[in-house]
Amino acid sequence: MTRAGFLARASVGALTVFVVAEALLGLADDALPEPVEWYNATAQAKAVQMEAGAKRGARKDVVFIGPSTVYRGVDAQLFERADSADRSAYNAGVKGGFPPIMLRWVMEEVVPRLRPRTVVYGLSSLDFHDRIFRGSVEAYQTARATRRDIWGTGERLLARLSRVVKYRKLLQDPSEYTYVRRVLTGRERDRVERELRELSPGGFQPKEPVPLEERRPVDRAILRGFDVGQRGTDHVKATVARLRSHRVRIVFVEMPVPPRFVSLHPDGRADYQRFRRHLRRLATDLKVELLSPPRRLSEGDLFADYVHYNARGAREFTRWLARSLPVR
Amino acid sequence: MTFNSIQYALFLPTVVVAYWALPKRARLPLLLAASYVFYGSWDYRFLSLIVISTASDFVIGRTLGRTEEEGRRRLLMAASLIVNLSILGFFKYFHFFVDSAAGLLTRAGLSANATFLEIVLPVGISFYTFQTISYTFDVYRRRMDPCQSPVLFAVYVAYFPQLVAGPIERARRLLPQLSADRRPPAVTELAGALGLIFLGLLKKVVIADRVGVYVDQVYANHQDAGSMALSLGVLAFAIQVYGDFSGYTDIARGSSRLFSVHLMENFTQPHLSRNITEFWQRWHISLSSWLREYLYVPLGGNQKGRLLTYRNLIATMLLGGLWHGAAWTYVVWGGCHGVYLAIHRAFQGETRTGPQLPRARHGDVGTERPDLPRGPRELLAVAATFTLVALTLVIFRAESLAQAFSIFGGLLSGTGPGPAPGYVVEVLLLAALAFGLDVVARLRISWSDVAVARPQLAGAAAGLCLLLVVIASGAPSIPFIYFQF
Q1: Which CATH superfamily is domain A41-153+192-324 in?
Q2: CB distance from A169 to chain B under 8 Å?
Q3: By three-state DSSP, how is residue A98 classified?
Q4: Burial, B218: exposed, middle or buried (Cβ in 10 Å; 0-12, 13-18, 19+)?
Q5: Do B455 and A9 count as a contact with CB atoms less than 8 A apart?
Q6: What is the ipTM of this complex?
Q7: Rounded distance between C-alpha atoms, residue B199 and residue B434, angstroms
Q8: Fewer CB within 10 Å of terminal CB in chain B, N or C?
Q9: Do residues A94 and A71 touch, judged by C-beta distance below 8 A?
């Protein structure tokens, strides 16, 4: 047999495997949940929501950005009702939206769709704790919708042509199989669809209280090795600079945290005060307005877990924001 | 440009086609240019280091060939060692020695300000340095004639399939192959080469990278992980490092076969070993045989009595550990293996004469395939050896000895949160796949012959590998672990 003959026959065998795999997934295509293209389902649901708003030509006066503390802490619809200046608002905070992600999320997704006049950036010490960024940033950079290299372009193209590529994330993770089974048997809804149903039109979703037993491992791990890091700082600065180049006004808000969260820092209150001084200095250097909430908004019973507001906490914080955010 | 990148998928076929299309006299220069492009894709500045190593050992080798006087020959050998080890020492061990010395002085009550430089570790420096040293050493010992062609020698040092992570080839094995009048691979060879590349991709992308996700999580949060979660992490890292490095070697060997150059086997199912000595005959064979040939034997090997044999084993493995990286974790990991080998030799007694480290007979060491373990006693021995190796790898993977001890403490605690069920299923499935591949490799079947007899079936197997690679890829890319060495 010649080399060409061997390669031709072997290629037929290899191609057959792919054709069979495509055919099998084709049979299940209608029943399978829509793959999450973003780094999490919340981001995807918000992108869909903002896109719908953009098609209606909606422009927001105030957009709140930041990680899950903002996403769970600001009810934009309540803000609109409570605001005496009658400003329109949207909560564009996302889970795991640390500064390196926020820079891209805001400039590539939020600003083009919502064209905000004012962006309110909610920051806590977590946003400067560089060590915890890695997983979320990698997930964002490698997610199909937001991957920016040749692989990302190729994958977005191939996902339209191949079901193997389209459902790759579902196939590669065995824990997804149980989720697929629950979706197929009607016990769970498609993740993105569920997120969209649960999100308020203002991009807010309150957090249910988390039992202490479930919280404990996260609580212990989240602030281990905390330091006010350069990476978070640099990305916050870059976000401010890029927003200004689009003539967007920026306001920082120091996100309230419960006493328990402060105590989770390696050096407790001393670390937290260091973060607060850093934030004040950053706001002064960048000439950005900084809003610091009153102490009563940090009481423990307003929180669902170590740092996220519960529904009551979100209401009180949002009302305070509506009163405190100056009209330009 | 890693082996599992799109760049390499384009680079390799381009070079192979160009290589065989060119007239013979142009092939070596092409291979050299391709190797430098490949290496320069990481950082072109480090090409200068390879050129320095290549030039110095080429000149020293030729001078050694013309020199008979022993004192002068020793000086030349020393010059080669100084050049190579100075480069390696500066780029790899500078901070390690400065920090360790500063630490010692501080403990002694003296103030010490460690000097910090921004030193970036050139990829693969340990591999090509050992390769050039072995050439000069062989010429010095008159085991081979010096290479007369600078281009041929430069290709030997920089040959891209094995440049960044081995196998560490011996000149007396690789130079004759590179200089020979070779023909394009026959169908059987081609089938074998492509089979190795697909197998390597499967091991790297599907097995190593997937279990690596769990390994990263469990090591990052080891203080909160229970003993079951840590045990799974220990198993997962043993599978990851093996899949990663042996996968890399398979791709290297497969790529090289497309140029009709056979690289030595580096792994022959080490996790099926019945004892630690057998393990070291089957794990990273090119390094362990190098250490035996150029360190253990010159130290006296097992020829100077029992105690000195133990000393030599432990010293060799300590340096083998240090070769992996400038950290005490690697030194301790190597030292542990030295102690294991010494203990095994002590219990084995003088009547059983199994070699302590693999003998390098032109790199064909460890390639014989013994029967699969049979009976409960042998299976127990395999399980015990694997457990010992996997536990010792905790020290290898840990960021510090303190972290390693913390993980050992967690393993013994018998409490704490268990791993997520999804991870248990995934790690166990991938471990079964890794062991399954090794068991199949032990069967005395010529896969090249099977592939040629049934090309469609071979294609389907390759297609299945590719399908799994397509499904498994897309997660954050994890660089080959051994590239850092």
Answers
A1: SGNH hydrolase (3.40.50.1110)
A2: yes
A3: coil
A4: buried
A5: yes
A6: 0.71
A7: 11
A8: N
A9: yes
